[in-house]
Design goal:
Blueprint: H1 9-27, H2 34-53, H3 63-94, H4 100-123, H5 128-142, H6 151-174, H7 178-204, H8 213-245, H9 249-265
Helix pairs in contact: 1-2, 1-5, 1-7, 2-3, 2-7, 3-4, 3-8, 6-7, 7-8, 8-9
Length: about 270
Protein backbone atom coordinates (compact mmCIF):
# COMPACT_ATOMS: atom_id res chain seq x y z
CA UNK A 1 0.00 0.00 0.00
CA UNK A 2 1.58 3.34 -1.08
CA UNK A 3 2.50 5.76 1.67
CA UNK A 4 0.34 8.88 1.85
CA UNK A 5 2.30 12.00 0.95
CA UNK A 6 2.76 14.53 3.72
CA UNK A 7 0.89 17.81 3.27
CA UNK A 8 2.76 20.90 2.24
CA UNK A 9 3.51 23.61 4.78
CA UNK A 10 0.69 25.73 3.31
CA UNK A 11 -1.79 22.83 3.49
CA UNK A 12 -0.80 22.05 7.08
CA UNK A 13 -1.22 25.70 8.11
CA UNK A 14 -4.64 25.86 6.43
CA UNK A 15 -5.70 22.67 8.21
CA UNK A 16 -4.65 24.01 11.62
CA UNK A 17 -6.49 27.30 10.97
CA UNK A 18 -9.77 25.61 10.05
CA UNK A 19 -9.32 23.30 13.04
CA UNK A 20 -9.24 26.30 15.40
CA UNK A 21 -12.55 27.56 13.97
CA UNK A 22 -14.11 24.18 14.61
CA UNK A 23 -12.58 24.02 18.09
CA UNK A 24 -14.26 27.34 18.94
CA UNK A 25 -17.57 26.07 17.57
CA UNK A 26 -17.37 22.89 19.65
CA UNK A 27 -16.43 24.82 22.77
CA UNK A 28 -19.57 26.95 22.49
CA UNK A 29 -21.85 23.99 21.78
CA UNK A 30 -21.82 22.37 25.24
CA UNK A 31 -24.72 23.78 27.31
CA UNK A 32 -23.43 22.08 30.46
CA UNK A 33 -20.04 23.82 30.35
CA UNK A 34 -20.88 27.33 29.13
CA UNK A 35 -18.24 29.18 31.14
CA UNK A 36 -15.49 26.73 30.22
CA UNK A 37 -16.72 26.79 26.62
CA UNK A 38 -16.38 30.58 26.47
CA UNK A 39 -12.85 30.35 27.84
CA UNK A 40 -11.85 27.63 25.34
CA UNK A 41 -13.50 29.45 22.43
CA UNK A 42 -11.56 32.64 23.21
CA UNK A 43 -8.31 30.67 23.34
CA UNK A 44 -9.09 29.08 19.96
CA UNK A 45 -9.79 32.54 18.50
CA UNK A 46 -6.45 33.82 19.83
CA UNK A 47 -4.59 30.83 18.38
CA UNK A 48 -6.32 31.35 15.04
CA UNK A 49 -5.45 35.03 14.92
CA UNK A 50 -1.83 34.28 15.84
CA UNK A 51 -1.64 31.71 13.06
CA UNK A 52 -3.18 33.96 10.41
CA UNK A 53 -0.69 36.73 11.21
CA UNK A 54 2.06 34.35 10.06
CA UNK A 55 0.63 34.82 6.55
CA UNK A 56 -0.22 38.50 6.85
CA UNK A 57 1.56 39.43 3.62
CA UNK A 58 -0.15 37.00 1.21
CA UNK A 59 -3.47 37.49 3.02
CA UNK A 60 -3.29 41.30 3.00
CA UNK A 61 -6.53 41.74 1.04
CA UNK A 62 -8.66 39.39 3.16
CA UNK A 63 -7.09 39.46 6.62
CA UNK A 64 -8.53 42.79 7.89
CA UNK A 65 -12.14 41.62 7.49
CA UNK A 66 -11.37 38.24 9.08
CA UNK A 67 -9.56 39.90 11.99
CA UNK A 68 -12.55 42.21 12.48
CA UNK A 69 -14.84 39.19 12.85
CA UNK A 70 -12.43 37.53 15.29
CA UNK A 71 -12.12 40.73 17.31
CA UNK A 72 -15.90 41.09 17.50
CA UNK A 73 -16.26 37.49 18.67
CA UNK A 74 -13.56 37.90 21.31
CA UNK A 75 -14.89 41.25 22.56
CA UNK A 76 -18.42 39.86 22.77
CA UNK A 77 -17.26 36.97 24.96
CA UNK A 78 -14.85 39.00 27.10
CA UNK A 79 -17.36 40.17 29.76
CA UNK A 80 -18.38 36.55 30.35
CA UNK A 81 -14.80 35.42 30.64
CA UNK A 82 -13.82 38.34 32.89
CA UNK A 83 -16.72 37.74 35.28
CA UNK A 84 -15.95 34.04 35.54
CA UNK A 85 -12.21 34.62 36.03
CA UNK A 86 -13.02 37.06 38.84
CA UNK A 87 -14.92 34.27 40.62
CA UNK A 88 -12.08 31.77 40.19
CA UNK A 89 -9.41 34.28 41.20
CA UNK A 90 -11.40 35.21 44.29
CA UNK A 91 -11.64 31.55 45.26
CA UNK A 92 -7.90 31.10 44.77
CA UNK A 93 -7.01 34.14 46.90
CA UNK A 94 -9.57 33.21 49.56
CA UNK A 95 -8.04 29.75 49.95
CA UNK A 96 -9.66 26.45 50.97
CA UNK A 97 -11.35 27.96 54.05
CA UNK A 98 -12.61 31.39 52.95
CA UNK A 99 -13.54 33.96 55.55
CA UNK A 100 -17.17 35.15 55.81
CA UNK A 101 -16.14 38.29 53.89
CA UNK A 102 -14.71 36.24 51.05
CA UNK A 103 -17.74 33.93 50.98
CA UNK A 104 -20.02 36.96 50.66
CA UNK A 105 -17.93 38.45 47.87
CA UNK A 106 -17.59 35.16 45.98
CA UNK A 107 -21.36 34.72 46.10
CA UNK A 108 -21.85 38.24 44.72
CA UNK A 109 -19.34 37.62 41.93
CA UNK A 110 -20.97 34.29 41.07
CA UNK A 111 -24.33 36.02 40.84
CA UNK A 112 -22.85 38.62 38.49
CA UNK A 113 -21.17 35.96 36.33
CA UNK A 114 -24.35 33.91 35.96
CA UNK A 115 -26.36 37.05 35.26
CA UNK A 116 -24.06 38.09 32.42
CA UNK A 117 -24.20 34.61 30.93
CA UNK A 118 -28.00 34.54 31.09
CA UNK A 119 -28.22 37.95 29.40
CA UNK A 120 -25.97 36.87 26.53
CA UNK A 121 -27.78 33.56 26.05
CA UNK A 122 -31.13 35.38 26.01
CA UNK A 123 -29.92 37.27 22.93
CA UNK A 124 -27.99 34.37 21.38
CA UNK A 125 -29.51 31.07 22.60
CA UNK A 126 -26.93 28.26 22.73
CA UNK A 127 -24.50 30.67 21.03
CA UNK A 128 -26.08 29.66 17.70
CA UNK A 129 -25.37 33.01 16.04
CA UNK A 130 -21.72 32.92 17.06
CA UNK A 131 -21.36 29.30 16.00
CA UNK A 132 -22.79 30.15 12.55
CA UNK A 133 -20.30 33.02 12.29
CA UNK A 134 -17.48 30.61 13.06
CA UNK A 135 -18.75 28.09 10.52
CA UNK A 136 -18.86 30.78 7.82
CA UNK A 137 -15.46 32.01 8.91
CA UNK A 138 -14.01 28.51 8.49
CA UNK A 139 -15.15 28.55 4.87
CA UNK A 140 -13.60 31.97 4.28
CA UNK A 141 -10.32 30.87 5.85
CA UNK A 142 -10.22 27.70 3.79
CA UNK A 143 -10.57 29.84 0.64
CA UNK A 144 -7.57 32.05 1.46
CA UNK A 145 -4.58 31.88 -0.95
CA UNK A 146 -2.65 29.43 1.20
CA UNK A 147 -0.61 28.32 -1.82
CA UNK A 148 1.21 31.66 -1.58
CA UNK A 149 2.47 30.95 1.94
CA UNK A 150 6.08 29.80 1.95
CA UNK A 151 8.41 28.72 4.70
CA UNK A 152 10.34 31.98 4.65
CA UNK A 153 7.03 33.89 4.86
CA UNK A 154 6.32 32.24 8.20
CA UNK A 155 9.83 32.49 9.61
CA UNK A 156 10.01 36.19 8.76
CA UNK A 157 6.69 36.73 10.53
CA UNK A 158 7.99 34.91 13.61
CA UNK A 159 11.09 37.10 13.58
CA UNK A 160 8.84 40.19 13.52
CA UNK A 161 6.91 38.84 16.51
CA UNK A 162 10.17 38.30 18.38
CA UNK A 163 11.17 41.91 17.76
CA UNK A 164 7.76 43.11 18.96
CA UNK A 165 8.09 41.10 22.18
CA UNK A 166 11.57 42.52 22.80
CA UNK A 167 10.29 46.06 22.20
CA UNK A 168 7.32 45.53 24.55
CA UNK A 169 9.64 44.05 27.19
CA UNK A 170 11.91 47.08 26.99
CA UNK A 171 8.98 49.45 27.34
CA UNK A 172 7.53 47.51 30.29
CA UNK A 173 10.95 47.54 31.99
CA UNK A 174 11.06 51.34 31.84
CA UNK A 175 7.34 51.83 32.50
CA UNK A 176 5.81 48.86 34.37
CA UNK A 177 2.27 50.23 34.07
CA UNK A 178 -0.68 47.84 33.66
CA UNK A 179 -0.99 48.88 30.02
CA UNK A 180 2.68 48.19 29.27
CA UNK A 181 2.62 44.85 31.07
CA UNK A 182 -0.59 43.87 29.27
CA UNK A 183 0.96 44.74 25.88
CA UNK A 184 4.03 42.67 26.75
CA UNK A 185 1.84 39.76 27.81
CA UNK A 186 -0.26 39.85 24.60
CA UNK A 187 2.80 39.88 22.40
CA UNK A 188 4.55 37.16 24.39
CA UNK A 189 1.43 34.98 24.24
CA UNK A 190 1.11 35.48 20.50
CA UNK A 191 4.73 34.55 19.90
CA UNK A 192 4.36 31.43 22.04
CA UNK A 193 1.31 30.36 20.03
CA UNK A 194 3.10 31.01 16.75
CA UNK A 195 6.13 28.98 17.82
CA UNK A 196 3.87 26.15 18.98
CA UNK A 197 1.90 25.92 15.74
CA UNK A 198 5.01 26.30 13.58
CA UNK A 199 6.67 23.37 15.31
CA UNK A 200 3.53 21.28 14.75
CA UNK A 201 3.27 22.32 11.10
CA UNK A 202 6.86 21.32 10.36
CA UNK A 203 6.25 17.95 11.99
CA UNK A 204 3.00 17.28 10.09
CA UNK A 205 4.56 18.42 6.81
CA UNK A 206 7.58 16.17 7.47
CA UNK A 207 9.92 19.11 7.07
CA UNK A 208 13.20 19.44 8.89
CA UNK A 209 13.21 21.86 11.77
CA UNK A 210 15.18 24.98 11.06
CA UNK A 211 18.52 25.60 12.69
CA UNK A 212 16.92 27.44 15.61
CA UNK A 213 14.45 24.67 16.50
CA UNK A 214 15.98 24.04 19.92
CA UNK A 215 16.10 27.75 20.72
CA UNK A 216 12.49 28.19 19.55
CA UNK A 217 11.28 25.36 21.78
CA UNK A 218 13.00 26.97 24.75
CA UNK A 219 11.60 30.35 23.72
CA UNK A 220 8.06 28.93 23.54
CA UNK A 221 8.45 27.54 27.06
CA UNK A 222 9.79 30.88 28.32
CA UNK A 223 6.96 32.78 26.62
CA UNK A 224 4.37 30.45 28.19
CA UNK A 225 5.88 30.97 31.64
CA UNK A 226 6.01 34.74 31.15
CA UNK A 227 2.44 34.89 29.83
CA UNK A 228 1.15 32.87 32.79
CA UNK A 229 2.95 35.12 35.29
CA UNK A 230 1.69 38.31 33.67
CA UNK A 231 -1.77 36.79 33.37
CA UNK A 232 -1.90 36.00 37.08
CA UNK A 233 -1.00 39.60 37.85
CA UNK A 234 -3.65 40.87 35.44
CA UNK A 235 -6.29 38.60 37.00
CA UNK A 236 -5.51 39.96 40.46
CA UNK A 237 -5.88 43.52 39.23
CA UNK A 238 -9.15 42.61 37.53
CA UNK A 239 -10.41 41.06 40.78
CA UNK A 240 -9.47 44.24 42.63
CA UNK A 241 -11.53 46.26 40.14
CA UNK A 242 -14.45 43.82 40.47
CA UNK A 243 -14.43 44.10 44.27
CA UNK A 244 -14.43 47.89 44.14
CA UNK A 245 -17.38 47.79 41.75
CA UNK A 246 -19.45 45.96 44.37
CA UNK A 247 -19.73 49.29 46.25
CA UNK A 248 -19.18 47.75 49.67
CA UNK A 249 -16.03 49.61 50.79
CA UNK A 250 -15.99 48.44 54.39
CA UNK A 251 -16.62 44.80 53.51
CA UNK A 252 -13.99 44.62 50.77
CA UNK A 253 -11.26 46.74 52.44
CA UNK A 254 -9.47 43.78 54.10
CA UNK A 255 -9.83 41.74 50.92
CA UNK A 256 -8.25 44.49 48.85
CA UNK A 257 -5.34 44.47 51.27
CA UNK A 258 -4.96 40.73 50.73
CA UNK A 259 -4.92 41.29 46.97
CA UNK A 260 -2.28 44.01 47.43
CA UNK A 261 -0.08 41.49 49.23
CA UNK A 262 -0.60 38.96 46.42
CA UNK A 263 0.30 41.56 43.80
CA UNK A 264 3.45 42.37 45.69
CA UNK A 265 4.57 38.76 45.24
CA UNK A 266 4.32 39.26 41.46
CA UNK A 267 6.24 42.54 41.46
CA UNK A 268 9.33 41.25 39.66
CA UNK A 269 8.49 39.59 36.36
CA UNK A 270 10.71 39.08 33.33
Amino acid sequence: MPKTAAPSIAEALASFAVRECRAAMRALSDPKQCHRGVHEARKAVRRLKSLLILAAEPFADSLPSIEAILARLAIGLSPLRDAYVAVNTARAVAGPSPSPEWRHVIEALEHRSEGRLAAVLAKDPRFLKRRRELRDLAGAIEALPWQEVRRDTVEQAIARSERRVAKAHKRASHDPSPASLHRWRRRARRLRMQLDVWRKVLKVAAKSSHHRAHEDKAAAHAMAKLSDALGAKQDLRALRTALRSLREPQAVAPLLEQIRVELKKHRKIG
